[in-house]
Amino acid sequence: MRGMCAAMLTLEAIILGLSVPVMISVEDVHRTLALVLGLGLAVLCVLVAGSLRRPQAYLVGHLIQVAAIALGFLVPIMFFVGLMFAALWFGAFFLGRKIEDDKARWAREAAETGQDD
């Protein structure tokens, strides 16, 4: 789960960083606001991707998805891009959790099978 979620956050950091010039040039968002929001979220994505060993980091990852969608109020295409990354994030989160649960179950079954011999 950690690897898939970290990959999603890393890709999202790139997209959020690339959104800054779009906010400034195309949507005429004030430069300071665009830098703080775009680069701030990008840096936060990288920091959270590196700290996914802690359960609290996943909560911050969920909040990043909300913030990325909220950028749509400044750059309308970010509604779509944010929703796309949120879907990828939650897919990685829930699929990763299911894979980890299956691995744990298989390990328990293997241990039980080994004890029966």
Number of helices: 4
Instruction: Determine Rg (CA atoms, Å).
Output: 18 Å
Q: Give the strand content.
A: under 5%
Helix content: over 70%
User: Uncertain segments of ≥5 residues (pLDDT<50)?
Assistant: none
Count the E strands.
Answer: 0
Largest sheet: none
Q: SSE order, as H and E?
A: HHHH
Descriptive report:
The protein is mainly alpha-helical and 117 residues long. The protein has one domain. Helix content is 86%, strand content 0%. The chain contains 4 helices and no strands. The chain has helices spanning 2-26, 31-50, 55-70, 77-116. Helix 2 runs antiparallel to helix 3. The longest helix is centred in the C-terminal third of the chain and has 40 residues, at 77-116. The model has no long low-confidence stretch (mean pLDDT 93).
Layout of strands and helices, then pairs:
Layout (H helix, E strand, L loop, with lengths): L1 H25 L4 H20 L4 H16 L6 H40 L1
Helix pairs in contact: 1-2, 1-4, 2-3, 3-4
